[in-house]
Amino acid sequence: MTFSTAISGINAANSDLGVISNNIANASTTGFKTSRAEFADVYATSLLGAGGNAIGLGVTLAGVTQEFGQGNINFTNNSLDLAINGGGFFQLSRDGALEYTRAGAFQVDREGFIVSNQGLRLQAFQVDAGGDVTGQLGDIRIDTSLLDPNETANVTYTTNLDSRDVSPGTGFATNGPYDVFASPSTAPNPIDFNATTSTTVYDSLGNPHVLSLYYVKTATPNTWEVYSLIDGQSQNGGAPQTLEFTSNGQFDPASATSIALAGWTPVDETGVPNGAAVQDFTVDLASTTQFGTPFAVSSIIQDGFAAGQLRGVEIDETGVTFARYTNGESRALGQIALASFNNQNGLQPVGDTNWVETFSSGSPNVAEPGTAGLGVVQSAALEDSNVEITEQLVNLIEAQRNFQANAQVIQAADAVTQTVINLR
Asked: 154-302: which CATH architecture?
């Protein structure tokens, strides 16, 4: 019995050494979680239980438990390197079968999917056509094709017209309409208007055009006319939009607050139609004021843009993944999902720093980062292994001593047995 007891101790020490050596070997493995061997004593029992003076029969390996404590976070230069600061796991799809990991070294495969080093696809909540996140899980994909252009439909100006200006007369209306492509070319004379501002608008092909507004104060107090030109050509037949203000500098409720540009035909640099669709859009002037300060433009907002090439990918702490394009636009591609488990120690390691759910772990609780007790996502960062080398080296010495002690027991038992055999 002594031999078998000592052998069980040697086996236990050997298992402990195996666990410790695995921890040390993975001290630099991204997302690795340290393990510890847990042991239990062994007693012989019968149907009536163990005797009052029962002697133990050794030790057995009760289990190997992983410790899911937070590892240090190191920053990198790759925006697709992701670390979880807090609880939770990334979800990965292996041909539809889900695995879970804390190792966030992701990359883009040849089809544009965000994948792990083993080619497993990262799972995220999908977005609809409007860019809103839905509750549907799926692969997250980065589309490297050109972003389609968007023609301008609305332009909003926030400006102040100087109430101290005087009317320049009717020269602007008399000399118009204007056309820089006409022969001879015609253009507004600075003495015929009080102020002007310009912005870029886009046609259906994504070509940029210059929209210019010319403000002319009339002889009627608190009344202005606004003339619109695109690429130097008068719009709406050269007819102005009248703006009327009250004595406090705000729009008169009965006054129009926008310009409807209808039937604009986009042209190229020679004045020839460029093939883009005939376009209508609205210029909103509702934020215009008339105070006794110099003319100023606070903001100009328009909703059109040219075609854009993918420039980069950004991921915020809530896991929302944005694609940035060369035209200044960005698009949400999805929101990375995190999973938690009621018993994460019940997860089954499957290699590659991945785990799968088991009956003991329970089903995953999937939610957005930063909610339901889940951590947040840190882009351009990786979580280090949580192995403490110093602690493991101390454990290694203890396991070695246990091994030696049990080997010594075998030597002692052998000496006793040999003495018995030598009895005459």
From this structure: Sandwich (2.60)
Alpha-carbon distance of 42 to 327, in angstroms, equals 71
Sequence letter at residue 60: T
In three-state secondary structure terms, 236 is helix
Beta strands in 140-188 (DSSP E): 154-162
What span, in angstroms and rounded, lies between the C-alpha atoms of 175 and 91? Answer: 68
Task: Please name which of 160, 116, 181 lies closest in space to residue 251, comparing C-alpha atoms.
Answer: 160
Q: Which two tokens stand for residue 287?
A: 């934020």
Burial group, residue 406, by CB count within 10 angstroms (0-12, 13-18, 19+): buried
Residues found in the chain: 424
Q: In angstroms, how far is CA 121 from the centroid of its own chain?
A: 15
Cα–Cα distance measured from residue 36 to residue 18, given in angstroms and rounded to the nearest whole number: 10
Share of the chain above pLDDT 90, in %: 81
pLDDT tens figures, 111-148: 999 999 999 999 999 998 878 899 899 999 988 888 89
Distance separating alpha carbons of residues 54 and 51, to the nearest angstrom: 5
DSSP state for residue 127 in the 8-state scheme: E
Question: If DSSP codes are grouped into helix, strand and coil, which group holds residue 379?
Answer: strand
Nearest to residue 137, comparing CAs of 180, 93, 95? 93
Residue 389 tokens, joined: 């080398």
What's the farthest any 2 CA atoms get from each other in the chain? 139
φ/ψ region of 295 (left if φ > 0, alpha if ψ in -120 to 50, else beta) reads: beta
Instruction: Please list the residue range(s) of the chain that carry CATH number 2.60.98.20.
Output: 154-302
